[in-house]
Amino acid sequence: MKALAILGSPRVKMNTDLLLNSVIQGLEEQHVVVEKIELKKFNIHPCIACGACEKTGVCFINDDMHKLYQKFDAADIVVFASPLYFNSVTSIAKTMIDRCQMFWSSKYVYNKPAIDRTKKRNGMFIATAGSLQKENGFMGATLVVDLFFRAINTKYHYNLLVDNTDKLFVKERLGLLEKAYEMGKKLTIFD
Questions:
Q1: So where are the chain's domains?
Q2: Each residue of 155-177: b (16+ CB within 10 Å) or e?
Q3: What is the CA 110 to chain-centroid distance, rounded?
Q4: Which residues make beta-bridge pairs with 33?
Q5: pLDDT of residue 135
Q6: According to DSSP H, which parts of 65-175 are helical?
Q7: What residues does the NADPH-dependent FMN reductase-like domain cover (predicted)?
């Protein structure tokens, strides 16, 4: 099995990255080949709503997103991690998600899917928030991620939503990294 682990945070070795790394360890324990993508290192331009993908099934913008399109199609598991910025994912993460419009257009307008729609994929979302969140504090992000997973034909299985990280670093929370590790192992089980 192959997994794609996407870090939508501009910072490494911090809360979101540490949780993602624990999930990766759980996946690797199950002999999954994991490729970790740090979006901050990719040159991805924003979607300009030009409609080219509706006519051709592909995005005309020539940047690093074309590397990711192939990786989404090859993946059996997608783990997406982002801190909350104004109750949604980061701008680098949202730019990548918006460029997945190509998958939607190729499926529903062009009628020639650019991603294998028969392949089963499991998905997980990791989000961290610096402040305490109210009951629906992560809802803006989870709605965006739900649509992202639908675009890339991935079953949205799990959330790991962690708030108050400005006061309590994830390494200081008993059992949290272990929970992430166990969730990574569970992602290898398909319905």
A1: 2-182
A2: ebbbebebbebeeeebeeeeebb
A3: 25
A4: 2
A5: 85
A6: 65-74, 91-98, 101-108, 139-151
A7: 1-131
- The candidate with the shortest Cα–Cα distance to 73, out of 27, 107, 25, is 107
CA dihedral over 80, 137, 14, 177, signed as positive or negative: negative
**Residue 175 and residue 87: Cα distance in Å, rounded?**
25
Taking residues 30-40, report their average pLDDT: 98
pLDDT tens by residue, 72-90: 999 999 999 999 999 999 9
Q: Which two tokens stand for residue 76?
A: 């059996």
Question: What would the pLDDT profile of 93-119 be if each residue is shown by its tens digit?
Answer: 999 999 999 999 999 999 999 999 999
Burial class of 99 by CB neighbour count within 10 A (0 to 12, 13 to 18, 19+): buried
Tell me which fold the domain 2-182 belongs to: Rossmann fold (3.40.50)
pTM above 0.85, yes or no: yes
